[in-house]
Amino acid sequence: MNDARTAATHPLDNPALGSLTGPHAHFAERRGRVLRYAVDVSPWLALPDVPDADDWADLAALVGPGGEAPLAGFNGSTPDGWELTFSIDGVQLVDAGLAAAPDAEAVRLGSADVPEMLDLVERTRPGPFLARTVELGTYLGIRRGGVLIAMAGERLHPPGWTEISAVCTDPDFRGQGLASRLILAVAHGIRERGETPFLHTAAENTGAIRLYESLGFELRRTTRFLAARVPEHLADGQTVGAR
């Protein structure tokens, strides 16, 4: 009989959990049924599909008092006393016929390129990208005059699926189709492994959604990205579980 707390759903319904119990298990830090990426790799934590009070207690212990717990795709309620520090409605889109292809100008990026990648991310704000995020998968970039001006890469990796993320272009070079080319090039590599590309973006980012749909992505579901702060102090015996 399936445990209702861990009943299987689609791998993309809880993609961080699928990643950290699957292809990205070597990045995982665990306490009980709660997992998170190493803090210099990715900020995301993963709860079970139906977390209980013990899971929230384990999350609190893993993050620490006053720590922030970013959760991808979590649609439940946070425990009483936990401050919600941000909540963003999002969409999840999946490959429905991408014209994926390699790009002759795209180059593979690695650890030596991280300072430039972090600088580009700082200027373009595509979402979380940390010192070791490049280790999550293939990152491709385009340079002009030796300067990195656009990039895209792989992030969450549930079995059989790979998320395309960190899609960004220097503002001085937008409108040239560089992001589209890199998305299709990254998707090509994912397809070559026999996996399916997917991605997330904010629901209000209608321009990006139109671009992704024009490339061959389709909406799979709406979702939510949030972060909750663990209370600084918990009284002896006080539960941290949601009611």
Query: Beta-sheet strand percentage?
Result: 25-35%
Distance between the first and last residues' Cα: 25 Å
Count of beta strands: 11
Count of DSSP H/I helices: 5
On the 0 to 100 scale, the average pLDDT is 92
How many strands, what sense, and barrel or not for the largest sheet?
Answer: 8 strands, mixed
Strand order of the largest sheet: 4-11-5-10-9-8-7-6
Overall radius of gyration: 19 Å
Unreliable segments (pLDDT under 50, ≥5 consecutive)? 1-8, 235-239
Helix content: 10-25%
Give a verbal description of the structure.
- The protein has helices at residues 15-20, 53-63, 114-124, 178-192, 206-215, and strands at 28-31, 34-37, 45-46, 68-72, 83-95, 107-109, 139-144, 147-154, 161-169, 196-202, 217-229.
- The two termini are 25 Å apart.
- Mean pLDDT is 92; it is low at 1-8 and 235-239.
- An 8-stranded mixed sheet has the order 4-11-5-10-9-8-7-6, sandwiched between helices. A 3-stranded antiparallel sheet has the order 1-2-3.
- It is α+β, with helices and mostly antiparallel strands and 243 residues long.
- The protein is built from 5 helices and 11 strands.
